[in-house]
Specification:
Radius of gyration: 20 Å
Strand content: 25-35%
Shape: globular
Strand order of the largest sheet: 4-3-11
Number of helices: 3
Helix content: 10-25%
Largest sheet: 3 strands, antiparallel
Structural class: alpha+beta
Number of strands: 11
Order of helices and strands: EEHHEEEEEEEEHE
């Protein structure tokens, strides 16, 4: 069973490998490190520690790099959150989710440019957005409206996010000009709204208590099979 590495103040570096005079297609991964989960009540270790091997970091110079990975790597530098190659929701999800899109508390997996939505920790088991099921002994996290802020609009109509920053001419037709061999642009013809969870401590404590149940549910009940499975909780959706 995979477990959630709930760590803070963790940093590591990765260096390119190979001939220094060549374009590199991959990075050497950082060294493995040990991870363990402790009880929030008495600091007792939950389960056995395990070794985690970070995946190699992709390089933009790799010609085989998928378009969705290239797009995300480029726009991450704009510091506007994690860029989704395909932001539209799965059409088979409940109507309530498809209508409102990603919201604070959504738990899922990033895969091939999509967000694979699983459940939302802010709503009860009986809510339509949790129609696909929830982990064992599930109870929604308790948050107050004062824990959330909303800015609408966050981006104005016809706004864009680009990396590298280049010239953009827009009159409902867009010309994107870049001096770099790689570039990515996100066009927002209707602008965007930003919703932020200000009290992230609540989510962190909640995740510490429930991470082992989440991974058991996702792997055994929902059948998600992927190496080094990572779960993500949405705290600042921009849509």
């Amino acid at each position: 069973m995979n477990k959630m590495p709930l760590l803070s103040n963790l940093s590591f570096g990765a260096g390119e490998v190979g001939d220094p005079n060549r374009n590199y297609h991959s990075y050497g991964p950082p060294s493995p490190f040990s991870v363990r989960i402790e009880s929030a009540l008495d600091k007792r270790s939950i389960g056995q520690p395990w070794r985690y091997q970070p995946q190699p970091l992709p390089s933009l110079s790799d010609p085989s790099l998928p378009a969705n990975s290239r797009y995300s790597l480029l726009l991450l530098s704009a510091k506007e959150g994690y860029p989704l190659w395909r932001p539209e929701p799965n059409r088979r999800l409940p109507e309530e989710y498809r209508r409102d899109g990603l919201y604070i508390g959504s738990v899922g997996i990033f895969h091939d440019g999509f967000f694979d939505y699983l459940f939302n920790i802010c709503y009860p088991k009986s809510h339509p957005v949790n129609a696909g099921g929830v982990p064992e002994d599930f109870k929604p996290v308790e948050i107050s409206q004062t824990d959330i802020s909303e800015v609408d609009p966050f981006h104005d109509v016809d706004a864009h996010v680009a990396s590298p920053i280049g010239g953009v001419n827009s009159r409902r037709a867009y010309d994107f000009m870049s001096m770099s061999p790689d570039g990515a642009i996100l066009v927002l013809p209707d602008g965007s709204t930003r919703i932020d969870l200000k009290n992230k401590k609540i989510f962190r404590q909640y995740a510490n208590r429930n991470a082992h149940r989440w991974f058991t549910y996702v792997e055994n009940t929902r059948g998600r099979e992927c190496e080094d499975l990572s779960l993500y909780i949405i705290t600042e959706p921009r849509r």
